[in-house]
Amino acid sequence: MKTKISFIVFLLSIQQIFSQQIAGSWKGDLDIEGNKLPFIVHIEKDKNSYKALLDSPAQGAEGISAEKVSFSNNELFIEITSANASYKGKLENNTISGNFIQNGKSFPLVLKPFDKKNNKDENLEILKLSANIQESLNKIDDFISYLEKNNAEAGEISIFKGGKEIYKRSFGEASLSQKDKVTFQIGSITKSMTAIMIFKLIEKKQLNLNDKLSKFYSKIPNAEKITISQMLHHSSGLGDYVTGKNTMKWLTDKVSEEQIMNHIIEQGSLFEPGTKVQYSNSGYYLLTKILEKVSKKSYADNLKETFVQPLQLKNFYTVSQKPTNVFSSYNYTNIWEPVKDFDFNNVVGVGDIATTPTNLNIIINALFAGKIVSKENLSGMMPKEDRFGMGLALVPFYSKMFVGHSGGTYGTNSLMIYNGEDDISIAYSLNADRIGANNFTIDILSILYNKKFSLPNFSSIKISETELKQYVGDYSSKDIPLGIKIFIKNGGLFGQGTGQPEFPLEYVEKDQFKFDNAGLKMTFFPEKTEMQLEQGGGKFLFNKKK
Question: Choosing a second label site near 188 at 20 to 30 A (CA), which of 5, 273, 438, 463?
């Protein structure tokens, strides 16, 4: 009898230890399509049961209540009915290892003890707009003036708050001598318009998300398996027709629809439909053709009916309308040089629209206000488990999650994003860019949300060609299978990877150069005939061929 009582007491003491181990805060990172989303679980012991609150800082969410929490035999189970999600993990050595499941998809999630007070992870900081937003806009104006003064950017930006434009500025175009230009090529933001118009057909019951591609184009590989939904979501397995067979830029001159279709067929299927997500221009090219077939209207007429007339847009064009007021694109090669861009007849519905950042903001605000498609269909367009939705994508900025789309041509980069929590949207187009569109976005958002950032540095030091010649040559590396050619052009140093476009190298300090657009830095060691390339946190040593 005494032995039995002692055993029960021992069991109770173990349960108390487990309770102390599981109660508290735990943090892990969900890896969703390459995006690290911090996930925090706060567990509290409540008599003989448990309660849990969950934070998803990257989505600006705190205190999400779990409907069911259990902890038994070192196994933790949490159910969040409101998000159609659950977590099951096992506690061992002060670490909970398990899987987060949402909408049928499973993601590994390892949780470790977390002390919020002493944590300095910027990804977990809940950001807020400045109480005086005009002050932030003034800082943005100063930032753009700095870029303009240093001949670093040309383009236009528009910011909306509460559905109204609160900031707009065109910059840098005077130095490019472009007159009577108003619009920009928005590249793949065009896909958002195509997706919206596909959903309009679905609302009219003229099309269904489960319709097979074979219904329209039976010769495409796997057409009998690929659905409209999968093409919208980039999970069709189709390739990227914009990339040529023997050259990257095969669409700078007009090609026929037959040539494009043959190329899509030739590229074949990269994976079984619905098993992966991979960005596909081919899918949206076919969606555009389906849109025209089902609606019995041209792409231009569909745009007019869905966007131009209802939203009273001016300066909104597809390529068939032959707009003449489009800003040309430029690359920086120590001077601004015109870029030979796409023949946009080759990318109708994929990347051919020309318009203004203000129009992009009008569209995305109308979309989220329920003025273009129903709320049900907007929900269908939204990204869920991964980065891509159906025509919309996630654009995270620390604890803020924006939704929208980016777009790039061979010389112009654009963005259209919206955050519902703060009811703010940002749209821009850069047709001459030295610092990189991603860096531009981060800097603008940093100013709006009071995050520290550094102004880009632009060297005023000119290095003579005689000095630059010591770096010129062909370099190769044992670390990566990439050859890099270093040469002089327009009085400056340039680099070019095998089969890639050339890029200018800006002087930083002795033997060091950078290319901000790609986050790249090169350090030369002339006496050793070596060069170190740094990019994305990696360092790679190259040797110059003798």
Answer: 273
